[in-house]
Amino acid sequence: MLKCAISGSKGVLGKKIIKTLPYKFYPFKGKIENFNKVNKWINLRRYDLVIHLAAIVPTKKVSKNYKKAKSVNIKGTKNIVKAVLNTRYPPKWFFYASTSHVYSTKFRNKKTPEKSIIKPYTKYGKTKREGEKIIEKNFKNKKTKFCVGRIFSFTDKNQNKPFVIPSLIEKIKKSRDKKIIIKNIDHYRDFLPTKDIVLAIKVLFNKKCKGIYNIGSGKKINLKNIALMIAKKNKKKIYFEKNNKVTYLISNINKIKKLGWKPRKFKIDMGYFY
Description:
Blueprint: E1 3-7, H1 12-20, E2 24-27, H2 35-42, E3 49-52, H3 59-64, H4 66-86, E4 93-99, E5 111-112, H5 123-138, E6 145-151, E7 153-155, H6 164-174, E8 180-183, E9 188-189, E10 191-193, H7 194-206, E11 211-215, E12 221-222, H8 223-233, E13 238-241, E14 250-251, H9 254-257, E15 268-269, E16 272-273
Parallel strand pairs: 1-2, 1-3, 3-4, 4-6, 5-14, 6-11, 7-10, 8-13
Antiparallel strand pairs: 9-12, 15-16
Helix pairs in contact: 1-7, 2-4, 4-5, 6-8
């Protein structure tokens, strides 16, 4: 059985990976900013692959404590990369979970390919882009192949606030106001269930892919429509306050589809995709 070192195993995506993929997992336990602990974990055994998910997310958490987010998302990535490169038994493959937040959101109705302009639109995106640069620089011409997955919006029934869909559900479902006002919601995003992300990672590993790949559905959905769906399910009336600016972030997934992966047909219920 393949041996996989995984950071961020307690997150929604990490749990789904461990539940879905047929590997023997060795989760990191502790603070990713502590190099000695990271180094000890990486050098415990010979791994076939490393999946690095550990990060402070989503954007509201990052904005509230940007200093801590930079420590975890950037320094933590430096630590795990350094440990992997210094081990006596380098893994065959290293996967870094990045984000669509590294892209610009100005491309109206256009899908975003991997070669698009890099202009992080959130502080979270800035930290993940720094992580990408660390990986690209340090794994160049090394035995371990690196792969960066730029993951677009994902959804899972185990997600909690402040992720956008759980936040909307709580606001609409629990509100006792006769007039529920939703602000800054007229944005187009690309949602994918966590299981599809896991299956994409599996394909990328099986093909020992190197470089950057978008992971998304390639389909756009307006967040207003999700809010309306949730309101209808809960028999509530909602009203929208107009945005100053409508943003778009939709994936071009032609590159990963060439490997044989494509998103499954999914259903939507209560704002969740599955």
